[in-house]
Amino acid sequence: MLAGGAARRLGGADKPGVRVGGRALLDRVLTACAGARTTVVVAGPRPTVRPVIWSREEPPGGGPLAALAAGLRHTTADRVVLLSADLPFLDHRTVRGLLAPLGHGATADGVLLTDADGRDQPLVAAYRTASLRRELAVLTGRHRDLAGLPLRRLTGSLDLTRIPGPVASFDCDTWDDIATARARIREHGHVLDEWISAVKDELGIDLDVDTGVLLDLARDAAHGVARPAAPLTTFLVGYAAAHAGGGPEAVAEAARKATALALRWADEDTPDATAPAPPAGTAPETRPDAG
């Protein structure tokens, strides 16, 4: 992952540390790569959401080719995912989608996303490590110093597969881009997933659960018991799941039990439809006058 740019269009701000949805851009990209065996970040060290290997290009600020060469020194994998650190909408599904076409029997050197205008995004891509090392060796033989050379000098010689990815390839080069990203994650169709991801990062939780089950539970607890019961019940479900060993199955089972209880609770607040009706013509029982 390359995170050492100068961010000139952001006025020299620390771009990897700019927050979108409460999380640093770098941490958002690291979360999308959580399944990687080794994660190398080419930049100056900083606190991150999970451990990484730090590397530095020579000279610092020498550009993407120099940074790529520095990062490759720390991996023995046969495939690598090359990413910039300013991709707010990258997710693990996209990362897996980049790697899949490079599986057994494939011949391409790499797979990259194209943006909304159809342009190649070589910093949202997966490559065969051998192909990168081969082309880096060629360029080093020609120029000795990779500093300042554009990445297309390398990628232009590769056999690449392209996948449209207008959202995942969206990068934040300007403050307007940052504002756009911050606005999008608050839209109705995205805000819940974004919030759950942020909370899991903040708490150090790596657990995928069916949020729909929890939302249904919260609804039933709020409507059938009382509104404050919703957050308290979902907390207790999480606590119970942890005691049961954790994992999606434990959460689902605890949620099922709590949902059934909430429904039974709500049923008691309605007339019992199974109770026998009084015989026709029977007058309701009355108490005799006390006087």
UniProtKB/TrEMBL annotation:
Entries under CDD domains matching the protein: MobA
Keyword ATP-binding belongs to the record: no
Residue stretches making up the MobA-like NTP transferase domain: 2-142
Sequence ranges assigned to domain DUF6457 in this UniProt record: 188-269
Presence of the UniProt keyword tRNA-binding in the record: no
Keywords: Cytoplasm, GTP-binding, Magnesium, Metal-binding, Molybdenum cofactor biosynthesis, Nucleotide-binding, Transferase
Region (Disordered): 265-291
InterPro entries to which the protein is assigned, alphabetical: DUF6457 (IPR045598), MobA-like_NTP_Trfase (IPR025877), Molybde_CF_guanTrfase (IPR013482), Nucleotide-diphossugar_trans (IPR029044)
SUPFAM superfamilies, A to Z: Nucleotide-diphospho-sugar transferases (SSF53448)
Protein name: DUF6457 domain-containing protein
